[in-house]
Amino acid sequence: MIRNFDKTTQETLLELEKTQKQFWNVARVTGEFLNLLIRTAKSKSVLELGTSNGYSGIWIGKALKETGGKLTTIEFYEKRIIPARENFEKCGVLDVITTLEGSAIKILEYMPEDTKFDFVFIDANKSETLRYFELIHPHLEAGGILAVDNVLSHEEKVRPFIEAIGEHPDYENVVLTLPAGLSLARKLR
Prior knowledge:
Blueprint: H1 7-17, H2 20-23, H3 28-41, E1 45-49, H4 55-67, E2 70-75, H5 78-90, E3 97-101, H6 104-109, E4 117-122, H7 129-136, E5 140-149, H8 155-167, E6 171-176, E7 182-187
Parallel strand pairs: 1-2, 1-4, 2-3, 4-5
Antiparallel strand pairs: 5-7, 6-7
């Protein structure tokens, strides 16, 4: 357990872990890793694709409370946004999270050019991962981090993305064998 999480947050995370398969949440160790990485990198402007019931957003939001940052999270399914916001409120992170409803591709296509992020986490439609990457690239700051979940569990669907980022001169990438597999890339320039 993260030592500085209050009892309500700890209990909420444990409850949400019971719904991991139903809501396609990341594994606890992946949530812990994202939290630690955001705090270590001192990230301030984070984008998440795939809010679901808010499990990973809680881990990210708690990290951003320490760094003074904000999370923008995008969820396609309206029925998931309400419980996510309730979970964010219970865990005391609602004030650092903006939830957008709709297609991540459409939202990214219309995102103002000057919108920048220093950390992006993708856990959405796996077959669209390459397109997400193409749309996020101009918004990710040099030195920023791109984390993509499910690169081993959904290897076939994300292969075009893995190949593209592996060949892209602006990125260095490694695949971590966390549950489901996590691609972790740093934008060089």
